[in-house]
Amino acid sequence: MKSLYIGLICLVFVSNCKSDPEQATLKVDKQELSIAEKIANAHGFEHWKNVSEVKFTFQVDTDSRSAKGRAWSWFPKSNEVLFESLYGEKKYSRSDMDSTQIANDRGFINDKFWLFVPFQLVWDTSATISESKKAQALISKTELNMITLTYPNEGGYTPGDAYDIFYDNDYIIREWIYRKGNVKEPSLITTFENYKDYNGIKIATEHRQENGSWNLNFTDVSITLDDQK
């Protein structure tokens, strides 16, 4: 009987020792996501790995004029870009550019940034992201969560810029403040509105200033997944 009791104690001890690594792994797997990851996921980032093509037209309208816009097709897996020029469609590879393509690529990077702000938070690893805090959004005048995205002073087309990003409790972006060169005063303040779902990816198709006389919008948006080709 005594030997049986000792055997049971040993069995329990071995069982506990074997379970420890599993518990440790479980704790690692459940590591808290960053704010950037939560915002990206709320906008459908889990579907990005299956995206084969993105099409959109970037357009800015004001009270005085309506712009034609810039039309793009992006193939993220090959990092190729197709755009409409004055001379018809042109295509280039972002992995193999020369100086003649810089102007077009600058436009593409700007327009793509507006389209995929939530994803840029995880794509742009050189940028820094502040801790989240509560703050009043300047257009809606409502209290939202806010983080500041700041780019380094070197590299990229617009180094040193900063963005104060306001998001709700569901991690959906509602407004932002753009500060050129990380100056204190806002350079541009707009909303994120008229969200639409494209194969699980949520896009804010309109960005308005407070007075309503300026509207940046996306038209002809389509997102194609691998299994739709």
Could you characterize the architecture of this molecule?
The chain is of the alpha+beta class and 229 residues long. It has one domain: Clam (outer membrane lipoprotein receptor (LolB), chain A), CATH 2.50.20. The protein is 25% helix and 38% strand. The strands form two sheets. A seven-stranded antiparallel beta sheet has the order 4-3-2-1-13-12-11, covered by helices on one side. Strands 5, 6, 7, 8, 9 and 10 form a six-stranded antiparallel beta sheet that branches. A hairpin with a 4-residue loop joins β2 (70-75) and β3 (80-85). The radius of gyration is 24 Å and the shape is globular. The model is unreliable at 1-28 (pLDDT under 50). This is Selenophosphate synthetase. It comes from Winogradskyella psychrotolerans RS-3.
